[in-house]
Design goal:
Length: 151
């Protein structure tokens, strides 16, 4: 179903952040913003519901943009339930859920980025070391065979 909703003026950047963490090997054409925002809503756990009013209050003065999005029926029902439980509009609740994930994955992405790179680098080094050891063994064997032929 399509809804016309007010999103944060920076919604394209928010989608870029979420895409970079959740679907890093895709482009904006492969993983559309509407899919990401539906995914953010689907991933949202009700145990974090107390965070939403704080985000709504924090972002109250931010610029918003009207945007037409396709939202799944099940996601829309979840959004309506969450909005009713915190006493906010669907649009404000939707914006706060997106902002919640952008804040959360921004921190997670920064924390996990460095260890992942160092782990990847150490694995690459181990492969290169094993390759060099094999090559060195082969070179040593070839040198021995050449010396025996020259005797």
């Amino acid at each position: 179903m399509q809804i016309n909703t007010a999103l944060d003026h920076e919604n394209e950047n928010q989608a870029k952040v979420l895409r970079g963490v959740w679907y890093p090997n895709t482009t904006s054409r492969e993983t559309r913003d509407a899919f990401l925002f539906n995914d953010a809503l689907d991933r949202f756990d009700a145990k974090f519901i107390d965070e939403l009013p704080k985000i709504i209050a924090r972002d109250k003065e931010r610029a918003i943009t009207q945007r037409m999005l396709t939202i799944k029926t099940t996601s829309n029902k979840k959004l309506e339930a969450l909005a009713a439980s915190i006493g906010a509009s669907k649009a404000a609740t939707f914006r706060s859920i997106i902002a919640f994930w952008v804040d959360k994955v921004g921190v997670i992405g920064k924390e996990e980025e460095k260890p992942a790179k160092s782990e990847e680098t150490s694995q690459l080094l181990m492969v290169k070391i094993a390759l060099l050891e094999k090559q060195l063994t082969a070179c040593t064997q070839t040198l021995k065979e050449i010396k025996e032929l020259t005797k």
